Amino acid sequence: MRYAMAIDTKKCVGCSDCVVACQTENDVPIGYCRDWVVEVTNGTYPQLEIEIRSERCNQCSNAPCVRCCPTGASHIADGGIVLVTENKCIGCGACINSCPYDARYSHPDGYVDKCTFCIQRIRKGLEPACVATCPTKCMYFGDLDDPNSPVSKMLKIRKYTTLIPEAGTEPQLYFLM
Amino acid sequence: MREEIIVSGRANPYIDPHLNIWHWQIPLYLFLGGLAAGILFFAGMYTIMGKEKAYSTAVSKAPLIVPFLLILGLIALFLDLKHKLYFWRLYTTIRIESPMSWGAWVLMLVTPLSFIWAAIKVREVFPRWDWKFDVLKNLETFFMKHKLILAWIMVVSSVILGVYTGILFSAFNARPLWNTSILGPLFLASGLSAGAAMIMLLSKDHAERTLFAKIDIGIIAVEMFLIVHMFMGFLASTQVQIDAAGLFLGGPYTASFWIFVVILGMIVPVILEVLELRKYKIPVVIPALLVLFGSLMMRFLIAFAGQESRWLY
User: Fold this and answer.
1) May I ask the CATH architecture of the domain A3-176?
2) In angstroms, rounded to a whole number, what is the distance separating the alpha carbons of residues A21 and A15?
């Protein structure tokens, strides 16, 4: 089993509903976020081209944050999801420094927090909150090992890219182009 | 033109607008750890070489401050933790892949070792010191008998500690400025040079001061070579590392790095030490303090600049 997410940059309108859905579902402290929306503008007015990406932890297969964690608090859970065990985390910040995507943050309670693909929802058979709430249905979630999952189907028929694959992290967030 | 912005308003503390999760605590510890490693290395080495009498500052006097340096360093490390009450989790596991786990365990070895070494040397420096209890006196005799073994362990573990202070940074591929294996040897050299400077500072013996001035000049030469080598490596590497090197080659850290670390911390002390060896009267405290200052600044600047260096997007 290998959970992954595909985000259609052609359908995303950058409304940030995914960010709010995540903050609500996961009780993210005020002023923090586990996901965010990036807008890339290419060209000079009036010849402009825009790409919008909803970004979060890439749940890397070769996760540097898991490698550098001195206590084993950062670990890989079922389906390749990278999680932090709160009562094992000492808040040393090594994983925050090790992430090329800046996807982790220091929770005000001291431990390190990040996107979990809403593992509490997945285990109940639901989609992550961001995917479920997206008004343009531009996000696809599922198991890459299952050829019939929404994410596998999209990756089969669309061109896609990942973020900084040259960092060697094997990211599992795919951006459809 | 290409512009990339976060439109959902991300402002995670310590992450945005640029990463600054490690503040003064980590570089201060890296300096203290490196300095402690340097002193212990020379103490161990001159014991093994059988020159304890000739270089008594290096072997006996300077190591007395090492436990204090390490305790200060440990306090700094503890202050850096954001989930402090769980710090003991470091010692419920050994994570081979994690440099920080290595560092925690090496400290667990070096700290008691530095206490034992200081304890068997304290009566040499303070002759009126009395251990009062027989248990302690017996322990002292026991360790005195095995001090050669202690010296060997000290040399090996101090090199690991010295290299570790650099490896901690260089293992982060996400921070291009740190992601060079030169940092291990560079920080070891800087720690050894700081150790030599501290011994010069404490020594009252002319022959010993001359020896450590010579050692210091040699190590600083190695450091300069490693720094040049580091920038050559960056400039011949990928765009992210070219940009990272740019922080020190025209970017915001240029002046502080070249003035404080290279000129004041290396070139000026080397000139002063050479002049001293040529019989000019130079107060030893000036080159020694400059070397210590340069070593401290190097840790701070590389720690802060490294967190600003990042991948392209």
Assistant:
1) 2-Layer Sandwich (3.30)
2) 11
